[in-house]
BTB/POZ domain-containing protein At1g67900 (Vigna radiata var. radiata), 632 residues
Amino acid sequence: MKFMKLGSRPDTFYTAESVRTISSEVSSDIIIQVKGTRYLLHKFPLLSKCSRLQRLCSESSDSPQHQIVQLPEFPGGVEAFELCAKFCYGITITLSAYNIVSSRCAAEYLQMTEDVEKGNLIYKLDVFFNSCILNGWKDSIVTLQTTKALPLWSEELAITSRCIEAIASKVLSHPSKVSLSHSHSRRVRDDVSSCNGTESLRHKSASRGWWAEDLADLSIDLYWRTMIAIKSGGKTPSNLIGDALKIYASRWLPNIRKNVHAKRETESDSDEDSDSASESTSKHRLLLESIVSLLPAEKGAVSCSFLLKLLKAANILKASASSKVELATRVGLQLEEASVNDLLIRSVSRTNNMMYEVDLVMTILEQFMLQGQSPPTSPPRSRLTIERRRSRSAENINFEFQESRRSSSASHSSKLKVAKLVDRYLQEVARDVNLPLSKFIALAETIPDFARHDHDDLYRAIDIYLKAHPELNKNERKRLCRILDCKKLSMEACMHAAQNELLPLRVVVQVLFFEQARAAAAGGKVTDMPSNIKALLTAHGIDPSKHTAPLSTTTSIHADDNWSVSGFKSPKSTKNPTLRMKLAEDDLDANVVPRDEIGRTSRFKGLLALPTQPKRMFSKLWATNRTATEKN
């Protein structure tokens, strides 16, 4: 830290009966009142350097021997006034980054300019400020912090802006050219110099963002202005900006959830406590929204985990909708980096009883699906999607254009990761008894079909939801299971589904026959139904010993839907009266579909499609089994 001493006389100020005075053989002839403190001083040393005191004394009607001057709004208070007074008497004073702001504002108030006397206090303070304070790293930061006590005066005298410019220039310059006096920054400098001062290590130290921890001491308004100045320089990598914001957020946004719970507990307490908690929440909200506005536009500048932590904080602090949308958009651009715990955003709304903010996650998924290009295996993107991307903010246009040029394989890989992430997220939120069925289905359908190589995780989520919502009726269970593709279930999942009494019977039949078809297609032997399947069909009033008629092989099959079992879609195609009645009942219920679900029925029309060859094999095998049974 730099400091400067002025004057040579010893300090002879003292307090007597609540009055500050100075030891002197000459009696005092002026009384100065500064914020409740009286000073008995002498006109000659003061008026010879303070133009304002000259004017006030000339306008005063008091006796010349005991004039009283009132200074009610003195900047910096009694400490700053006494420093200026000691300078007038030639008493030694020490100036540093901690008191230069108040001293400079006080000198400006007293008009201690060069017009009054050469080498006056304002001139000496400006020389010290320009040559020492602005050239020092820690000095600039401390001086900038002290401007908070006198914001209007500091802005008018350009102290705040000049400190910000000095700090930004040091961040943008080579660290070897910066006078680092802070302990953390000094350690970095010592580490660099201890290794022969090589340029590579200097650049390495600069790449670590050596300045971020020091700037984290600033209040949010000063920090915001400083970061804007650093970003406008265009020399600092976006990832360093992101690291600096993360350090600042971890410093000033700790234990938000605990603070909110404490606030709720004190809502029934006194109004004073409630106002205090509300003020604290408002400050944190402003801080959070300021951090969001500083986030770099480049993808990957900050981690997805950090963005989701900010989103959780924004949800708790009830930040503005624009801040939430901005965070959700940025999370969507790199959603493949997220974990399930990151996406579990607790709901703080009192209008619904859901445990998690599913709507926010839905917004994130929508943003993820809008960015990038679809892989060749998926349907071509429509013009509407392109127009949506063009309507995004101008700040991200160049970035999005570069991202859209990425290889389709990278986009496809990210969608595969997100599909797994969403299915595991569904397993967590499915336990919420207040989660509506429509939201669960909407989340699952956000992922395109090609992104799910298997449906095991989705099946687990459906199973958990069915267990947590036993009140679902038959149609609702069917509606839920329409998002499940039995062809993509593993053998273990099929075995579990075949014994799952919560699933609709039609789904169980699909699983059973697909497993039989898969075994036949693999060249294996098609055996009789497993005992657990027989028990399940028996529980539903179906005699498993009476197999259905051979499946039709003449049914025309669409090229994109060559897995339909028309023989089981129509009740007339089976000779088992109980099974025919059950499936007819299912078809009747399936026809009663809400208006908003009509568009989804096409997906359900092909319950299960068996290849032509497996159908013939089923017909022969079951006919053989039936003949053998009749002979016995």
